[in-house]
Amino acid sequence: MVSGESKVSSELSPWPVSRLSLTLKEWIERLGVLWIEGELSQIKFGPTNMFGEIRDLQQENSVSIHAWSLGKIPVDLKQGDRVVALIKPAFWPKGGKLTMQVLEMRKVGLGELLERIERLRATLAAEGLTDPSKKKPLPFLPSCIGLITGKDSDAEKDVLKNAKLRWPNVEFKVVNTLVQGDKAAPEIISAMKQLDQDPEVDVIIVARGGGSFLDLVVFSDEELVRTAAKIQTPLVSAIGHENDRPVLDDVADLRASTPTDAAKRVVPDVTEQRAMLSQLTHRAFLRIATAVQNQSELISQLRSRPLMANPYGFIEKLDEETEREIIRLRNRFSQLLDVSALELSHLKAQVRSLSPQSTLERGYAVLLDSGGHVVTNPTKVTKGSKLTAKLAKGELPLTAD
């Protein structure tokens, strides 16, 4: 810093441009080295160096790059290659230019992309975003379907054609987007959010008619698949590729093998439904007719029975049987009463014969001492004691001799 310059910029003590440039250089160089990923938009090789630009995979951002040594940089790199680079940010104060010094660079190969995709797949599974129990059910008969696909693509035509053939009244809201390349993910994400917020849309189909692994890698973009898992509207993935299954298939509520398959699984076939309805109606008619026939036969059987032919005769017969049973019960009850009366008379006679009074009436007497106690032993009585002899009728005073 030049002597006399203020450490703090203000209206009264502004920095010179050189001071600003040097400060920016210091801040940027503090970042150190960084790994970045992007796409080569320009590249030019010299005998011992390289210059070019690398741009963001999704946004319209790019930075200048240069390398003073080609030792760790493939010489077959070309415009459009997806690369990972170890860079050191540098700021040139004189020109006010920001550039990135490339220390190492390599192409992003299929193996690395596959490894990233599998790591993402495992992460989503651990978070429960691919759990089958959390899949949202599709509506039986959607009135409006949201379709995300490429403009005028075969996938768009297949879905619309097959859905209309199955149910002519079904409505579509189509959002055309890029379906491959680095700029496709933001467009598809925006389309998902747009259709999810539309109250008329019952289900969303994301469709593409297959392609190579690199063509379909956008459908394994982390932000895209997390958006698909977050939306509230049921989502169908119809990418149309069996071998290289994109991650979108895992988080979608339904995976269809092709766009045509998606149309068939989302929209019921009106012809099939009418045939099914006709079949169910016929089955119901047969069941009702069978039930009526069975009841009619049962009524005929009941009418043919003697009871139904002469119900009053049956009642008269029961009345006669009841009367006979009453008479029989009365006679039986009378016999039981007579037997019980005879047994009671015998019991009374036995009780009388065993009573003390009956003993006295046969001429016996009960001897009582002066205290009224029964005398059973002569040794208990002294001479001259006053005794009483209790007879059947009255008492007789006695004196012991």
Automatic annotation (TrEMBL):
Chief location bin: cytoplasm
Matches recorded under HAMAP family: Exonuc_7_L (MF_00378)
UniProt keyword Metal-binding present: no
Domain Exonuclease VII large subunit C-terminal: 130-331
Documented EC number(s): 3.1.11.6
Family: Belongs to the XseA family.
Subunit structure: Heterooligomer composed of large and small subunits.
Gene Ontology terms, MF aspect: exodeoxyribonuclease VII activity; nucleic acid binding
Keyword set, alphabetical order: Cytoplasm, Exonuclease, Hydrolase, Nuclease
GO process terms (BP): DNA catabolic process
Function: Bidirectionally degrades single-stranded DNA into large acid-insoluble oligonucleotides, which are then degraded further into small acid-soluble oligonucleotides.
Pfam families named among the record's database cross-references: Exonuc_VII_L, tRNA_anti_2
Catalytic reaction equation(s): Exonucleolytic cleavage in either 5'- to 3'- or 3'- to 5'-direction to yield nucleoside 5'-phosphates
Identification of the protein by name: Exodeoxyribonuclease 7 large subunit
Compartments it resides in: Cytoplasm
A GO CC annotation given for this chain: cytoplasm
Gene: xseA
Classification via InterPro entries: Exonuc_VII_L, Exonuc_VII_lsu_C, OB-fold_nuc-bd_dom
Residue ranges annotated for the OB-fold nucleic acid binding domain, each copy included: 16-106
